[in-house]
Amino acid sequence: MSKLLQAFIFDLDGVITESAEYHYLAWKALAEELGITFDRAFNEELKGVSRMESLEKILVLGGRQDEFTPEQKASLAAKKNDHYGTLIQQITPADILPGIAPLLAEIRSRNLKLGLASVSRNAFTVMASLGLKDEFDVIVDAAEIKRGKPDPEIFLTAAQLLGVEPSACIGVEDAVVGVEAIKGAGMFAVGIGSEETLAKADLVYAHTGLLSYAEIVEKFDQA
Ligand code: BG6
Ligand code: MG
Fold it and tell me: Annotated site (Important for catalytic activity and assists the phosphoryl transfer reaction to Asp8 by balancing charge and orienting the reacting groups), which positions (predicted)?
């Protein structure tokens, strides 16, 4: 079946900029205050996961999930977000990851649409700091999304707002649950990270510097 490519839909944290590292540092600091230690392997399970769900996973890891009231959990999550907010204040356009600006330029030069599907409630702030807010046709508001990744809702919402069929979209993600969400939406998935971790992606690049518009579109056409 021939498909006509119409849009690229990107995740933000860990794809467009290295803010995934700031999420990691902020969660790690909070976890340590609670006497819970976690490593980068566990952090893979937090990527693409909403703020409250991430907190729950950390509390379960430390066996402390039953020790806090909903209000206390909300204040723990707010504390992490305050720390994260401080870290992202340093973000400038220089923090756009290698390979992303040329890829966005290629997409634009072919009049394809650009969407952002991040579950982060800080996505608008980060995109503004990167100078990319107006480059995208659609930035999905995470607050409007009912089901987080791996549910395909956020990618389907992006496609709908862009006015394109999911099968005409390519999604780009660094998270396991993100790749699952793209595939669940019926889109072609490009993963950024390890092939082993992102085994469900249609094409994987170890880092964004290796992204190739020509190769991605060739594989999309063959899929
Ligand atoms: C995702 C990140 O993009 O956003 C997760 O991969 C993060 O690590 C999630 O927890 C929610 O972000 P925020 O900014 O709303 O706490
Ligand atoms: Mg991500």
Answer: 118, 149
Q: Residue 87's closest CA among 142, 31, 17?
A: 17
Q: What is the pTM of this model?
A: 0.95
| pLDDT on residue 3 | 76
What is the CA(46)–ligand 2 centre distance, in A? 9
CATH superfamily of this structure's domain 20-90: Putative phosphatase; domain 2 (1.10.150.240)
Mutate to test the pocket of ligand 1, among 38, 54, 81, 129 (most ligand atoms within 8 A of CB): 54
Query: Given the CA of residue 122, which atom of ligand 1 is nearest to it?
Result: 14
For residue 1, how far is its CA from the centre of ligand 2 (angstroms)? Answer: 30
- Tens of pLDDT, residue by residue over 104-138, are 999 999 999 999 999 999 999 999 999 999 999 99
Q: Under CATH, which number does the domain 7-17+92-222 receive? A: 3.40.50.1000
List Cβ neighbours of 16 (8 Å cut-off, separation of 6 or more). 10, 96, 97, 100, 116, 127, 130, 132
Residues with pLDDT less than 70, the chain: 1-2
Is 40 flagged in the annotation as binding? no
Task: Please indicate if the annotation marks 49 as binding a ligand.
Answer: yes
